[in-house]
UniProtKB/TrEMBL annotation:
<keyword id="KW-0805">Transcription regulation</keyword>
<keyword id="KW-0802">TPR repeat</keyword>
<dbReference type="GO" id="GO:0000160">
    <property type="term" value="P:phosphorelay signal transduction system"/>
</dbReference>
<keyword id="KW-0804">Transcription</keyword>
<feature type="domain" description="OmpR/PhoB-type">
    <location>
        <begin position="13"/>
        <end position="115"/>
    </location>
</feature>
<keyword id="KW-0902">Two-component regulatory system</keyword>
<dbReference type="Pfam" id="PF13374">
    <property type="entry name" value="TPR_10"/>
</dbReference>
<dbReference type="InterPro" id="IPR016032">
    <property type="entry name" value="Sig_transdc_resp-reg_C-effctor"/>
</dbReference>
<dbReference type="InterPro" id="IPR002182">
    <property type="entry name" value="NB-ARC"/>
</dbReference>
<feature type="region of interest" description="Disordered">
    <location>
        <begin position="1"/>
        <end position="27"/>
    </location>
</feature>
<dbReference type="GO" id="GO:0006355">
    <property type="term" value="P:regulation of DNA-templated transcription"/>
</dbReference>
<keyword id="KW-0238">DNA-binding</keyword>
<dbReference type="InterPro" id="IPR019734">
    <property type="entry name" value="TPR_rpt"/>
</dbReference>
<comment type="similarity">
    <text>Belongs to the AfsR/DnrI/RedD regulatory family.</text>
</comment>
<dbReference type="InterPro" id="IPR051677">
    <property type="entry name" value="AfsR-DnrI-RedD_regulator"/>
</dbReference>
<dbReference type="Pfam" id="PF13424">
    <property type="entry name" value="TPR_12"/>
</dbReference>
<dbReference type="InterPro" id="IPR036388">
    <property type="entry name" value="WH-like_DNA-bd_sf"/>
</dbReference>
């Protein structure tokens, strides 16, 4: 029997939608796993294995009748029992009673399953999902295709037709498994197309272990490893595959696999990233008669040229039978001064002059100046340009606008309205008929211009900016100083006007090098003064916008410019301005409409770099020093108060917040943990910038405490580098101000950062100084904290007895302070010291005490640390099942609290347990996850993970890939001076068995 679908998937019975008269309710069948039948939530009896085999054979017949002979062959093959026909009839009778007589019908001496409801068979649902995914992929919607394929794959519940006997079931099992793997390969292929290569490595490692001869999986694994920067492992996969195919089948890898190996060896750049379909260029030719000349060095903006060209094409293209255009198109370009609005609009107009043959009009409306052009004056000039005699031009605005629209009726004209003030100025100047188009540039977003296609023009990309700079300066001068040229365009904020001015100054001074210009622009306080050439000046452009602000807008513009950081939230801006959030939002949105401020996302705002410099210059010129200081103090208080709230939620009953500097301005309040964590990670950049900005002021202690309260950022792995940079800057500031208490805390934080990143000796150096400073300042909180850190450092150094002494010291201080949560964490660390000293039973008992204490306090991220510590102790005790349970709970909590590095190290520990228990495939999968996530401990821990992964791969007979892992591990150990280097060298010796 062969029930194959025409398009590769299994064929299934025809189904009709539920709700037909008399149809049993909610009858469902499963074949992608054990064969089951359900009506609603009730599972129906399907009888013996042979009876389920009969049901499966009928379900997979597409509603067609199966003869008794076919069913006997399906159940028993060539050796049926003597009473096979009677048995088939008995099975069918029992199934009819259990299901419904109208579902299993008898006809022509055979049986069939008919009239199933929509979605009644899991295989049918999977096939529908697969077809939908194929359509989505063909349409280029890979996200949708992946989602639907995952739903299809999720319908499998183990092996298809599990436990069903007979040759037919066996053939179908093979076919369904092949189809499942095909779907899985298709989904993994789309994962790689969307750049999810690092995440795919773990899954592919496990799959290649389970299906070692499936070459497509090996090919996908090679590609995923290569795109993850692991070229040696990718080539090792090929070597393992070639050896395995030769040993098992006596064949070479297929051509596709060999070609992939060749491309990897040649570092083919096309392999590095997923391929993207080539974009079709949009050719729009516009030629208005009144347009200014386009610049010869127009650069970039390809996406905007394409987008706006399509809008113009909608107007200029054929519409009705008379050949006129389909719509009257209006496009309004908004952006800060100097972003290139006019240049882009003129360039677009020049591309389309043949599409608008009846006239091209242009006017500078002078909207950014003190005296904007009057609409009636502009209409008079437009009417004259269109051939209207002066005597025929009426006096009033309304009459001129009506005549203007009448003159344009039936014509195809492009109107470029440059530098508009607002929508009111523009409305009378718009053509009123289809076939015409208007391009508008303005610093104001014209949200109140009905029907307009709004475009927010941003700065150039770095590549575009460098091309523009090179075209003006010359290829020869830039090629020899490319890095300096990149510094120049970055200092210009990638703003076209600034780049043009800087490049023009350099082109006019042949004795200057690009480096000389870069050095001049490096000084932020002089940068705006440097960016002027002739009648072009960036500062003058910004002054036009600032001069048009009302007093409240101007104050907000100045004060917001004081805050460092990539952007600012509405709540933080409200603190800076000392306003209710709703009033602050009105002001900020009004600044966005003037293009002096950008809306980075709903509720978030940012300045262009050069605009920020101008805003600060305005603040120094127009705002009293005490008002500037008060604004930044409110911002620091806001961040410290809010971060303390997050800390309380993440670490309930921890006493650290009781010992932070007091705040005068309130922070946000959170009702649940997810919102608190969202705030912390969203605000990481601005928060750390605030710490750096405040570190050199009289608010130094608040800055240090803010950094300390935000310590969860570093262990997440998302902000580690930025956090470390801030910690170092804070240490320098505290030393310069000779504040022992602040310096002790700052060095404690820095020691913690270095410990997380695996730089153990540097961490110890900082911790030793921090302990001395905290002792002298009588800062008991810092003493306990740094004692715990020094204990952890000792664990890394193998000094377990010394570690116990430090942990005991930390526990003494924590108990005295009543800090029960941190005490429980320190107990988990103490258990690790006992493990190192060989007292495994004692270590388990102490870890259990720490877990019990945390369990009493409630669910928090530190509860995960206690589960982790107990899992480590149980692993060493050989209690693998219990250890896995604790690690699983720790992993869940770490993920919930977004501690990615702790997730990574927990996966490493789980991999250790699986390898010790003889499960190398699972060990490899978890080790791959650890590599993808990253781990506490930096390169040294990554080396440990690679070593363990290599051992697992060696047990899976992937020797070449195992050696690639060990070589990389050895390199990491040698770079960090880790003692594990000797173990890695031993694994790589020819006599090593792995």
């Amino acid at each position: 029997m062969d029930d194959r679908a025409e398009h590769g998937g299994p064929r299934v019975p025809q189904q009709r939608r539920p709700g037909s008269p008399g149809e049993p309710a909610a009858l469902r069948f499963d074949v992608l796993g054990p064969v089951r039948a359900r009506r609603g939530d009730e599972q129906l009896a399907t009888g013996s294995p042979q009876q389920r085999a009969l049901l499966a054979a009928l379900l997979l017949r597409e509603g067609r009748t199966a003869t008794a002979a076919e069913l006997i062959d399906a159940l028993w093959g060539e050796d049926p029992p003597s009473q096979a026909l009677a048995a088939v009839r008995t099975y069918a009778s029992r199934l009819r009673k259990a299901l419904d007589p109208r579902v299993l019908v008898s006809e022509s001496g055979g049986y069939a399953v008919r009239g199933l409801g929509q979605g009644a068979l899991d295989l049918a649902v999977a096939q529908e999902h697969a077809a939908e995914a194929e359509k989505a992929r063909a349409a280029g919607d890979l996200g949708r295709a992946r989602e639907v394929l995952n739903r299809a794959l999720g319908l499998w519940d183990g092996e298809a037709l599990a436990g069903v006997p007979g040759p037919y079931a066996e053939a179908q099992r093979v076919r369904l498994e092949e189809w499942r793997l095909g779907l899985l390969e298709a989904r993994l292929d789309m994962d790689l197309e969307q750049g999810c290569h690092a995440e795919a490595v773990s899954e592919l490692t496990a799959l290649t272990a389970a299906y070692p001869l499936r070459e497509r999986l090996r090919e996908l694994l090679m590609l995923a490893l290569y795109r993850s920067g692991r070229q040696a492992e990718a080539l090792a996969v090929y070597a393992d595959t070639r050896r395995l195919l030769a040993e098992e089948l006596g064949v070479d890898p297929r051509a596709g696999l060999r070609e992939l190996q060749r491309r990897i060896l040649q570092a083919d750049p096309e392999l590095a990233e997923p391929s993207a379909p080539a974009e079709q260029p949009t050719v729009v030719q516009v030629r208005p008669a009144q347009l200014p000349a386009t610049v010869p060095d127009f650069t970039g903006r390809s996406s905007f040229v394409r987008e706006l060209g399509e809008v113009l094409a909608a107007a200029s293209g054929p519409g009705g039978g008379d050949g006129t255009g389909r719509v009257m198109a209006v496009s309004a370009l908004a952006g800060i001064g100097g972003v290139g609005k006019t240049t882009l609009a003129v360039h677009l107009a020049h591309r389309a002059r043949s599409a608008f043959p009846d006239g091209q009009l242009y006017v500078d409306l002078q909207g950014a100046g003190a005296r904007a052009a009057e609409p009636e004056t502009v209409l008079g000039s437009f009417l004259r340009a269109l051939g209207t005699a002066d005597s025929a031009i009426p006096d009033s605005l309304a009459e001129r606008a009506a005549l203007y629209r009448s003159v344009l009726d039936g014509r195809r004209v492009l109107v470029l309205l440059d530098n508009a003030k607002d929508a009111a100025q523009v409305r009378p100047l718009l053509p009123g008929t289809e076939g015409c188009a208007a391009l508008i540039t303005s610093r104001v977003r014209m949200v109140d211009l009905a029907g307009a296609h709004l475009v927010d023009l941003d700065v150039m990309s770095p590549d575009e900016a460098l091309v523009l700079f090179t075209r003006i300066v010359g290829e020869e001068r830039v090629a020899s100083e490319r890095e300096a040229a990149l510094d120049v365009v970055a200092a210009c904020g990638f703003l076209p006007l600034a780049i043009r001015i800087a490049a023009s100054r350099l082109a006019a001074r042949r004795t200057w090098t690009v480096s000389v210009l870069a050095a001049k622009l490096a000084d932020e306080r002089r940068r705006l003064d440097e960016l002027q050439a002739g009648d072009l000046a960036v500062k003058a452009t910004f002054e036009l916008g600032y001069g048009a602000l009302d007093p409240s807008q101007a104050r907000a513009f100045r004060l917001l410019g004081l805050a460092d950081g990539p952007d600012i939230s509405l709540a933080a801006a409200a603190a800076v301005l000392d306003l209710p959030p709703e009033d602050a939002e009105d002001l900020l949105e009004s600044l966005v409409d003037t293009s002096l401020l950008e809306s980075a996302a709903p509720g978030r705002y940012r300045f262009h770099d050069l605009v920020r410099l101008y805003a600060r210059a305005c603040a120094e010129r127009d705002t009293r020093p005490e008002e500037r200081g008060a604004a930044l103090s409110r911002l620091l208080d806001f961040y410290l108060a809010t971060t303390a709230q997050v800390y309380v939620i993440e670490h309930p009953r921890d006493r650290l917040v009781d010992d932070l500097e007091p705040t005068r301005y309130p922070g946000l309040r959170f009702t649940e943990a997810t919102a608190a964590l969202d705030w912390l990670y969203t605000e990481a950049g601005p928060l750390l910038a605030c710490v750096r900005q405040a570190a050199g002021t009289e608010r130094l202690r608040q800055a240090v405490d803010l950094l300390w309260a935000a310590k969860d950022l570093t262990e997440s792995g998302a902000n580690s580098h930025q956090y470390e940079t801030t910690a170092r800057a804070t240490c320098e500031a505290t030393r310069a101000m000779d504040d022992r208490r602040a310096e002790g805390r700052a060095r404690t934080v820095l020691s913690d950062v270095l410990l997380v990143s695996g730089r153990i000796q540097q961490s110890e150096d900082e911790a030793r100084v921090a302990m001395e400073l905290a002792d002298r300042a009588r800062d008991a909180t810092a003493v306990s904290w740094v004692a715990n850190n020094r204990g952890l450092i000792c664990l890394h150094q193998g000094r377990f007895a010394d570690g116990k002494v430090f942990f005991d010291q930390a526990l003494e201080g924590l108990r005295a302070a009543g800090n029960r949560p941190f005490e429980a964490t320190a107990l988990g660390n103490l258990s690790r010291a006992y493990l190192g000293m060989g007292e495994t039973a004692k270590a388990v008992e102490i870890a259990q005490r720490g877990l019990a204490a945390h369990s009493e306090i409630g669910r928090s991220v530190r509860l995960a640390n206690s589960h982790f510590a107990l899992g480590v102790a149980l692993t060493q005790a050989g209690r693998h099942t219990e250890a896995l349970a604790d690690f699983a709970e720790a992993l869940h909590i770490f993920h919930e609290h977004r501690q990615r590095l702790w997730e990574g190290v927990t996966n490493f520990r789980i991999a250790q347990v699986h390898l010790a228990a003889g499960r190398p495939a699972q060990a490899a999968q978890h080790a791959e996850l650890a590599l993808t996530l990253g781990c506490i401990g930096g390169d040294r821990m990554r080396g440990n993970v690679l070593t363990l992964l290599g051992r697992a791969l060696a047990e899976l007979c992937q020797a070449d890939r195992a050696r690639a892992c060990w070589r990389e591990a050895l390199s990491l150990y040698e770079q960090s001076g880790a003692p594990e280097a000797d173990d890695a060298r031993a694994l790589l010796t020819p006599t090593s068995t792995g």
